[in-house]
TrEMBL record:
Lineage, highest ranks first: Bacteria, Pseudomonadati, Bacteroidota, Sphingobacteriia, Sphingobacteriales
Pfam families assigned to the protein according to its UniProt record, in alphabetical order: adh_short
Record protein name field: SDR family NAD(P)-dependent oxidoreductase
Keywords on record: Oxidoreductase
Gene3D superfamilies, per database record: NAD(P)-binding Rossmann-like Domain
Family membership: Belongs to the short-chain dehydrogenases/reductases (SDR) family.
Source organism, top-level taxon: Bacteria
Statement: the UniProt record of this protein carries the keyword Transport: no
Length: 253
C-alpha cells in the first residue's frame, strides 16, 4: 500500500488523480486544498468507487510556508509517511500583455505555482525517508515549454516548475526519489474559469470547437508513471489534445 499526497485535490486534475488511484486498490490518499467542502464531496465519491480506500483530507493553502510546515507536521501518526507526492495545486490568473498585468494576479501565480510547490516539497521529502517507492510528480504545462502571447507570468511560473523538476531529480537522486514532470496542453477543468476570474462564458469558449484533454486523461498518465518498475523513471511527458499542435496552434471545428 502506497500513500499518495495530492495538492489541489478539490478539482480538475487533482480530483481525477484521486479517483483514478482510489480505483486501483493499492493507494492510500492524503488529499488537500483550500476548499474542504469539495474534499468532503470527493471523499464520498471515493467511498462509492472503492469503500476500502483510506482517505485523509485536510485544508491547506500551499502559499503559506508556516501553514504547510505546521499542517504536515501535525498529520495523524498513521499519515506521516508519504510515498508519492503529486505537486498539482496551481492556477493561472489573467491573460493580458505584461504592461497591463495585474500585480495581484502575478503574486497569486508565483506564490502558488512556484513558492507553494517548493514549500510542500521541502516538508514532504523528509516524510518520504522510509519509503521504498518515493516519487514526486510535478504538474508542469506546455506553458513551461514555450511562451504564448499574454501568457507571460503563468508561462514563467511553469518554466520555473520545469527547472525545479530537473533540479529535484539531481538533488534527490541519492535519496532514490523518482521525479517526473507531466506537462499538459489544454485540459478542461476549472482552470480557465479561475484564469478569467469566474467568467464562465469566456472559460467555456476556450474549449469550444475542440476536444480538450480531461482530468482523467492526465490521471491515466499518472497511473502509468506510477506503475513502472522501481528501476524505471519517466522524466518528462508533454501531452496535448490531438487538435493542439503547440501553445497557440489549435485546430477548431
Ligand atoms: P483546477 O482549477 O480545476 O484545479 C486547481 C487546483 O489547485 C484546485 O484543487 C485548487 O483548490 C488548487 N489550488 C489553487 N490554489 C491553491 C492554493 N493556494 N493552495 C492549495 N491548493 C490550491 O485546475 P487544473 O486541475 O487544470 O490544474 C491543476 C494543475 O495542472 C495546475 O498546476 C495547472 O497549472 C496545471 N495545468 C493545467 C492545465 C489545464 O489546461 N487545465 C494544463 C497544464 C497544466 P482550492 O481552490 O480548493 O484551493
Ligand atoms: C495550462 C494550459 O495552454 O493555458 O497550463 O497554458 S495553457
Amino acid at each position: 500500500m502506497r500513500t499518495v499526497l495530492i495538492t489541489g485535490a478539490s478539482s480538475g486534475i487533482g480530483e481525477a488523480c484521486a479517483l483514478e488511484l482510489a480505483s486501483e486498490q493499492n493507494f492510500r490518499l492524503l488529499l488537500c486544498a483550500r476548499r474542504v467542502e469539495k474534499l468532503d464531496e470527493l471523499t464520498q465519491k471515493i467511498k462509492h468507487i472503492n469503500p476500502q480506500t483510506e482517505v485523509h483530507t485536510f485544508k491547506l493553502d500551499v502559499r503559506n510556508a508556516d501553514e504547510v510546515e505546521t499542517t504536515l507536521g501535525n498529520l495523524p501518526a498513521e499519515w506521516k509517511q508519504v510515498d508519492i507526492l503529486i505537486n498539482n495545486a496551481g492556477l493561472s490568473q489573467g491573460l493580458d500583455p505584461i504592461q497591463d498585468g495585474d500585480i495581484g494576479d502575478w503574486d497569486r501565480m508565483i506564490d502558488t505555482n512556484v513558492k507553494g510547490l517548493l514549500y510542500v516539497t521541502k516538508y514532504v521529502v523528509p516524510m518520504m525517508a522510509a519509503s521504498e517507492h518515493a516519487h514526486i510528480i510535478n504538474l508542469g504545462s506546455i506553458a513551461g515549454k514555450e511562451v504564448y502571447p499574454n501568457g507571460n507570468v503563468y508561462c514563467a511560473t511553469k518554466h520555473a516548475v520545469d527547472a525545479l523538476n530537473k533540479a529535484m531529480r539531481i538533488d534527490l537522486l541519492q535519496k532514490g526519489i523518482k521525479v517526473t514532470a507531466i506537462n499538459p496542453g489544454m485540459v478542461e477543468t476549472e482552470f480557465s474559469e479561475v484564469r478569467f476570474h469566474g467568467d464562465k462564458d469566456r472559460a467555456k469558449a476556450v474549449y469550444q470547437g475542440l476536444t480538450p484533454l480531461s482530468g482523467k486523461d492526465i490521471a491515466d498518465i499518472v497511473s502509468f508513471v506510477l506503475s513502472r518498475p522501481k528501476h524505471v523513471n519517466i522524466n518528462d511527458i508533454l501531452v496535448m489534445p490531438t487538435v493542439q499542435a503547440n501553445g497557440t496552434i489549435i485546430n477548431r471545428n
